[in-house]
Amino acid sequence: MTKADLSKSPAAVSAMFDEVASAYDRTNDLLSFYQSRLWRRVLRSEVAPKAPMRILDIAAGTGTSSMALLAEGVEVVAADFSKGMLAEGKKRYPQLEFVFADAMKLPFEDASFDVVTMSFGLRNVADHKVALKEFYRVLKPTGRLVICEFSHVSGVLGRLYRWYLRNVLPVVAKLVSSNPQAYSYLSESIEAWPKQQELRDDISAAGFDSASYRNLTFGIVAIHRGLKG
Ligand SMILES: C[S@@+](CC[C@H](N)C(=O)[O-])C[C@H]1O[C@@H](n2cnc3c(N)ncnc32)[C@H](O)[C@@H]1O
User: Fold this and answer.
1) What's the 156 CA to ligand 1 centre distance in angstroms?
2) pLDDT digits (tens, 9 = 90+) for 139-167
3) Angle CA(214)–CA(197)–CA(37) in degrees, nearest 5?
4) What domains appear along the chain, each with residue ranges and CATH number?
5) Is the peptide bond before 52 cis (omega within 30 degrees of 0)?
6) CA–CA distance, 226 with 212 (Å, rounded to integer)
7) Ligand 1 proximity of 98 Cβ (cutoff 6 Å)
8) Alpha helices (runs of H) in 106-206, residue ranges in sequence order
9) pLDDT, tens digit, 9 for 90 and up, residues 98-119
10) How far is the CA of 165 from the centre of ligand 1 (A)?
């Protein structure tokens, strides 16, 4: 079984997701106590898909995040670099367009999307600052970036949440996941991930205007946005 580490080698990350592909969505729902569905609804309202938008959902995995964005007259490109996740997605959602793509070197032309969005993917990218610059490049002028990612909870609740990440999540993952080690990587990578304000500053440094964020579920997840001015 493959477990990525915090060096986030692309080969190890994609292999790890190849191995969890078939049970990925079910495990996600269970480990998040079904909050993942609420987070996806909020993401949709932030992206606000409407015709004739062209949306890139990078790190789309099995396509569940992309399905949440479908709307009449909207084109959603579901891109990922795990062949296992893409294969599972194609089986599950034949109505979606799946593309093999690395977030750090996107196979798309400059200025080709109205919105670039990424759900639970940026934390796994070897150099997220390189990916943010790629997102800026492929966005049209006035295009928007919307990132949904695990983040940080402060205070007493934060201590409780970190206890859950270290002690409960790995045990539950052992019971429900096809690759429990992938979920110890999940805990480690969440704890090592930049705080809300730091990621907002990274988005600004990649060239975006009006970078901002909002917390969901006390900051367990944060939605970051940026505008290509
Ligand atoms: C936790 S899953 C999220 C999938 C989906 N967005 C969702 O919300 O269910 C993370 C995905 O990020 C993908 N990923 C990680 N690094 C990537 C990269 N550099 N380029 C493209 N995809 C990447 C993995 O292959 C995996 O499918």
Assistant:
1) 30
2) 999 999 999 999 999 999 999 999 999 99
3) 30
4) 10-227 (3.40.50.150)
5) yes
6) 7
7) no
8) 128-138, 155-163, 169-176, 180-192, 196-205
9) 999 999 999 999 999 999 999 9
10) 20
